[in-house]
Amino acid sequence: MKRPRVRDDLALHPGYHSPQVEVDVRLNTNEAPEPPPEGFREALAAELAGVEWHRYPDRAATELREAIAAHHGVQASQVFVANGSNEVLQTLCLTYGGPGRSVATFEPTYALHSHIPKITNTAVVSGERTEDFALDMDEVRRVLTEHDPTITFLCSPNNPTGMVETEETVRAVADLAPGLVVVDEAYGQFAPWSALELVDETSPIVVTRTYSKTWSMAAARLGYLIGPTWLVEELSEVVLPYHLDAVKQIAGRVALDFEPQMRRRVSDLVEERGRVTAALSQLPVTVWPSGANFILFRPDAVDGDTVWQRLVERSVLVRNCASWPRLDGCLRITLGTPGEDDRFLDALTDILETS
User: What is the domain count for the chain?
Assistant: First the structure.
């Protein structure tokens, strides 16, 4: 059988995976712990009844972009939508990356900030964070000056560490960056401030968001970007035609009608984050402060791989972060329902006390 070869630069490139096993308590993928609010399914079904299935969807996703713009107090021309925030990142790399260009990341951070550029044949240059995983501005200056990246990725709150970048830090990076500064705010609703405040027509700052977390719509794969109108126009020229289907456009618009319920859920999860963090601080583990819907921790006396496996044996799944740079022995728990979090805390306490 004749078979084409994979591109040489991708042949040994590992894929991105989040291992899934059958457990009672799944706290490893930063999803919302509950489905959309009551009434969402009915409202969505009513709107879907009017879909003209034999017609292509609105190529510009006009109504969805207008709804997102109204939600954030910006213009629809500043909104780009795609199949999850990862497709937003991919479109940015296809538009501004490519051979001879580079993106900058600061590790540890979201793995797809490196994975997606490599797939688009864009070089990745990485700097180190400080001991407590904060951005080191001297290191930022070195990386940006030496490598001249067309895109600099920040993640706030940072995945998997949970750290929120300050407004001062984002402004400082934007002043140093030779190209775009992409602030990935997949967990931005859980943080005390947003870089959306800094987006305008003259700034190199753009912000990406997702429906997967606070909107309880991970199954839909819907994300968006807020940025200058000129950037949105350029992204729209690169993305595939009719890339966002009619169902997704309607679902995203309908979800925004339930904003009060979502805000209450965010508030509840922030309170739950405090409770779980306090409980972890009473155990022999190192815990990092988080502004997201997850918490990073490292067992002090027991190997992280061992703890992860023993949690699975107790039907609790968390994320093993050992493959991230500088995160040997670290685990990350996604906040679940109070009952799920109690199952995790009880299991972890038992493991640490009997090891």
Answer: 2
